[in-house]
Amino acid sequence: MSKKDIKIIFCDVDETLVYKNTVPQPNIEAIDKLVKNTDTKFVICTGRPFSLAEKIIKDINLRDKEKQYSICGSGSVIYENKDKKILYVQQLSKDLLKKLFEFAKKFDVYSFFVGLEYFHLYKNPEAEIKKRDAEQAKYKILDENFNMDELLDGEDKILRIVYAKDNDIEYLKMVRDEILKNEEYKEHLDCFISSGKYLEINPKGVNKGVAIRWLCDHLNVKKENTMGIGDSDNDIDMLKNVGFGVGVANANENVRKVVDYICEKDYKEGGVQEAIEKFCL
Q: pLDDT digit string (tens) for 183-239?
């Protein structure tokens, strides 16, 4: 692979690009060099909504830039960074969101709705709220008797729902399996674990890989001219839909099975810098 072949880098955010909600300086410097010295685009590909990803986009100096893009909501939304222009959006139906909320209560998992602008938190523990504060996320806390119709018909378009339970990943896997036993859910939903503690629930066929294919088609870029960088299971669709896959040093075993290269550096040390300099500069 020639370094001139890569036209787009798709990069996961948490535990890949970012450490403690901050982009390590080596990564910032490498992205700056990439954008200034090549025609390669750097596209974050994250489960975060744009409101939460915006700080990261600013850190890497790509906010309000024309012809620079971001994939948010685990593939639910694609933006052009300039003016936060929405190019593509997918969301769960209101009926499914209502059923999934009742399902969360049945299995005693805490849940939150992910909107275009806000996290809407229901009975989330203090640790989750502190996490959102540390991330400077936009969020609203739903009281126990909130009106579901008002939420779903409100100004913030609700895209999907996420479950969690005290970092109990095995329990969440069990909940995922129970969801997928239901034929209606199985037909209309995709479920996956992220960050080792969340069960994310998306519309069927909505994932990072599908969003990547859409953006590549939109920009007329071939798969073989793309690279992906990630660390965990929710990056696998992304990594399978690029020409060259990279895992940072902290990548899990499932990611290691599908990538072409594992960095020597992890997300704290500048694994993204390593990938950019080795393959694109």
A: 989 899 989 888 778 999 999 988 999 999 999 999 999 999 999 999 998 899 999
Which two tokens mark 165? 């339970």
The answer to whether 155 touches 120, Cβ cutoff 8 Å, is no
Domain that holds residue 45: 3-89+207-279
User: What pTM was estimated for this model as a whole?
Assistant: 0.83
Quote the CA–CA distance of 94 and 154 in Å, as a whole number. Answer: 12
Distance separating alpha carbons of residues 47 and 52, to the nearest angstrom: 10
Domains: count for the chain: 2
Question: How confident is the model over 165-183, as pLDDT tens digits?
Answer: 877 889 999 999 999 999 9
CATH number (domain holding residue 148):
3.30.1240.10
- Find how far residue 100's CA is from the centre of its chain: 20
The neighbour count for residue 118, using CB atoms within 10 Å, is 20
| Calpha distance 253→117 (Å, rounded) | 33
